[in-house]
Amino acid sequence: MKTVYIITYPVPTNIKKLIDFNTSIFLIVVDQAMDYIGDLKKDIHCWIGDFDSTKTKDFSNELITLPTEKDITDTEAAVLYAKTLNPSKIVILGGIGGKRFEHALSNMILLSKYDDLEIITDDSSMKVLGEGIHQIDFKGYVNIFSVESSRVSLKGFKYPLQNYRMKINDNIGISNELVERIGFIEVLEGKVLLILTKEQ
After folding, report:
1. Residue 145: which of 179, 109, 91 has the closest Cα?
2. Which tens digit of pLDDT belongs to each residue from 147-185?
3. CA 126 to chain centre
4. pTM of the full predicted structure?
5. 17 by DSSP, 3-state: which?
6. Rounded CA Rg of the chain
7. Do residues 160 and 187 touch, judged by C-beta distance below 8 A?
8. Given CB 3.0 to 4.6 Å as the disulfide criterion, which of 2, 29, 113, 186 pairs with 24?
9. Which residues, including other chains, have CB under 8 Å from residue 138's CB and lie 6 or more apart?
10. What is the C-alpha separation between 68 and 77, in angstroms, rounded?
């Protein structure tokens, strides 16, 4: 099964380091992100967008033109297209930061809307965790936020939790760290957003 990478603006600085070229992959670029990927253009399989903000004109592989006025973002359209490829997972590269915070927020909302979706930037990765026990092996800040009212336990962390009822407006899960090599996040009910952030 292949991994589908969706590259969207703002594009991570070290974009190539975030892609595992040793596995089966499919690369999609969203709209103006094409202007910021350098020689990675030659590896792109599909370019999708309404192309209202790009300077790039030439592309020889699959081109999907979207209407300017629509009910979803170009990035969400790319996710929907990626799902038709039956991938093992979909990874959005970029899409967080820049001047348009509303686009960053809309991209994060996609994590709760579609299963097996992850966002990776230069400094962070984020995904939604459903019910179950999830192992964490990461040096940096581990942050969790409730996507919907949830119950969570944390083991192996500096700030542990036991069967904690986490609300959507709860910030108790921010800036945690592992104190053991492996930590465990148990989602007993609901869903949580996991954000792993490198130490600066």
Report:
1. 109
2. 988 999 999 999 999 999 999 999 999 999 999 999 999
3. 5
4. 0.93
5. helix
6. 18
7. no
8. 2
9. 178, 183, 196
10. 12
Cα–Cα distance measured from residue 75 to residue 103, given in angstroms and rounded to the nearest whole number? 9
pLDDT digits (tens, 9 = 90+) for 41-65: 999 999 999 988 888 877 889 999 9
Number of Cβ atoms within 10 Å of the Cβ of 20: 11
| CA 170 vs CA 76, 110, 130, 146, 182: distances in Å | 27, 20, 18, 7, 24
DSSP state of 146: E
The C-alpha atoms of residue 139 and residue 29 are separated, in whole angstroms, by 30
Burial grade of 37 (CB within 10 A; 0-12, 13-18, 19 or more): buried
Q: Does domain 3-122 have CATH number 3.40.50.10240?
A: yes
Every domain range in the chain assigned CATH 2.60.120.320: 129-197
Classify 45 as helix, strand or coil: coil
129-197, superfamily in CATH? Thiamin pyrophosphokinase, thiamin-binding domain (2.60.120.320)
pLDDT of residue 1 exceeding 80, the answer is no
Tokens 């800036």 sit on residue? 175
3-class DSSP assignment, residue 164: strand
Query: What number is the average pLDDT over the span 2-15?
Result: 95
Q: Can you read off the two tokens belonging to residue 153?
A: 């336990």
d(CA 109, CA 114): 9
